[in-house]
Amino acid sequence: MAARRRDSKTTIVDIAAASGVSITTVSRILNNKPDVAEDTRQRVLRVMDEIGFAPQSAWRQIRSGRSGLIGVHEPQDFNPPNLQLIMSAALGVEDAGYSINIITRKLSDAELLGIFRSREVDGIILSEILTYDRRPELLRDHGYPFVMIGHRLDNAGLSFVDIDTEHAIEMAIDHLVGLGHRSIALLIFNPVIRGRQYGFSTWALSGYEHACQRHGLEHMPCLGGLTIEEMSVAARRMLDEYPEVTAVVVPQEVAVVGLLRAVQERGLRIPDDLSVVSMLGEMPSQLATPPFTSIAFPAEEMGSAAARMLLDRLANGGSSAEQAWIKSALTVRGSTAAPRNANT
Questions:
Q1: Same domain, yes or no, for 217 and 310?
Q2: Whole-angstrom Cα distance, residue 67 to residue 98?
């Protein structure tokens, strides 16, 4: 049959008439629904091809069975979205012809599987990982391509990229001990929030405990909630319970703000009265007064690595797990100094 030119008024009604099927059938094929006989699907696709009904991008999706979308699931239970990480992942997939679809709501098992079954995404990057996170195990068992940013307690057969949080916290403690500090606190979110155990805080506490044991230091962990006000309360409690503290490691932005409030209320000065090591980006670390000694959070590197890892799985169809650890660097600035009495 000779190819026909597409009329500017061509609709699915015309496609249905030319194919000898109902309008509903054409609609289901356009939406890539599975419950259409394969010979019918192919006949309609041929007519659409001849008429040139579908835009080229949509046509490629229909023919290939791919959506051209990579999902990023970052449920907002703990932190605001890490825009630098998401942007880096988006840039990482664009050269391969994909776009990013960001999902911030919680997903049930059925909803998560449904995203793949309805071909809304071709693969997914999972963020905000819990220590017993169900999502990666579910996707692994169903053979769907995914990568975690973060890791669980059990990571057998799971692909992830993560910062070595334990090493980062130990590096901060080593720096402070090297300056002469012997009373060092950790101010951080409670790892168990709303009945779920948050991976980052769990690994940070583990690194803190190991470093304290190595150096023979008293453990001074202080756990707070998710808001600035809750972390301000936790910081005040820390200063009350540990009046001897001369330094604190604060690896979350909300906790940093909470600490600064408490420090200002008490009339304390950084680093004269309290040395502080944070985990902040380059710009907020430099804008603080004094500029913060900080552990870099390599969001750009993590987003790029996760995108590359997932694209490799999509291109090669491999099922073997790939796991990448990214070590962070410590940048010394004005918020840390030797304690006033280095012998305490």
A1: no
A2: 9
Domain at 49, CATH number? 1.10.260.40
Helix 38-51, helix 12-19: angle, nearest 10? 120
- Is the pTM here over 0.85, yes or no? no
CA within 13 Å, CB half, 340: 9
Question: Are 17 and 49 within one domain?
Answer: yes
- Give 77's pLDDT tier (boundaries 50, 70, 90): low
Q: How do residues 147-179 score in pLDDT, each as one tens digit?
A: 999 999 999 889 999 999 999 999 999 999 999
Helices 23-30, 38-51: axis angle to 10 degrees equals: 80
CATH number at residue 277: 3.40.50.2300
Peptide bond preceding 34: is omega within 30 degrees of 0, i.e. cis? no
Q: Which domain holds residue 39?
A: 12-64
Beta-strand relationship, 196-197 and 192-193: antiparallel
Tell me, rounded to whole angstroms, the distance of Cα 185 from its chain centroid: 27
Q: C-alpha dihedral over 196, 201, 206, 212, to 10 degrees? A: -140
In a domain, 6, yes or no: no
Looking at residue 86, the DSSP 8-state letter turns out to be H
Please choose, from the candidates 147, 186, 155, the residue with its C-alpha nearest in 3D space to the C-alpha of residue 278.
186
Strands 160-163 and 330-331: unpaired
The structure tokens listed for 141 are 């068992």
Gap between the Cα atoms of 253 and 278, Å rounded: 8
The overall longest dimension of the chain from CA atoms, in Å, is: 92
